[in-house]
């Protein structure tokens, strides 16, 4: 059994966006939320912030050089708050064309759990190696300049062959008092601009907090975490949400190093390379010849799901006399966010995109869809914009899309259905 750790890389080409604060505090929160999970942190930067938070006494133990050079199996030091760490190095030397070396060292190690890598504000060999080894990349953004620089991180991921939806943007150091032109907040500007560019956003933001900034500034050499010294701040809850998000990604990768792996049976269908074999509701493997095919077109996420998991949510809309073969159902969330007063609908469309009717949920009844949207879309519904998830029964494989020809038919119907939905008048 492989003990390769799940690697979370915190990276940005721009300095001053909170990378180290995120990396160190995330490690503490992960360990607090799951005490039996090994959590390790290392930094390729030379500011020694990791040591200032986690070192016990004056002995720092093995350094990050062991991760980079790969001379022997890396053995981190157990530090404060139960977090393991590698001591920082002031003069860590880079070797050309060694960006794959870190992944090889980790594959041969027995670290396990989660490894958090803090990187330099430059795309050097160290940062590129951390990106190449990453299972999840968190890129903080606090202004337009840092948002523009995300393109460089994404390009580096692609160059390292690691651009499979691993990059997530995290608005950081957000001053909610600041207003841009026309009264737009920086948070709204960054969120809208990131989505417009097609980036994935983590389900929280980290606001600017003088109290949190003061934890790393003072006469003492020790740096203190938000968890123990800023529990009354908004940032405390935001770091907890971020840690839950990372744990969800970690749990999803435990069964496979790629949580959205391609099924061997559909290897000749390029459009299905993101098809996940696990049912999004129960997490168990779903068969290809029964149940449902689920697709979130906006985020290009596709799942197989059990009929006994999906059909109780859909009610009579999933019955055979209502839904002919070759039809699709659309779980339609017309408004951004998640509020009790908003509408949530399930709409049916026939094999020629004809309208088969709809069912509307409100109040506590629609809460049954909360976990469904969260699992299928990979985001908290509270953070989702207008969202539509398509469902097709697998009893008609020629249509539902588990073959190249079948998927082409499904894609044609999907385009017609989404075009119809865009042209529908507002609900009311």
UniProtKB/TrEMBL annotation:
Entries under InterPro entries matching the protein: CobQ/CobB/MinD/ParA_Nub-bd_dom, DNA_Partitioning_ATPase, P-loop_NTPase
Protein's name according to its UniProt entry: ParA family protein
Pfam families attached to this UniProt entry: CbiA
Domain CobQ/CobB/MinD/ParA nucleotide binding: 8-52
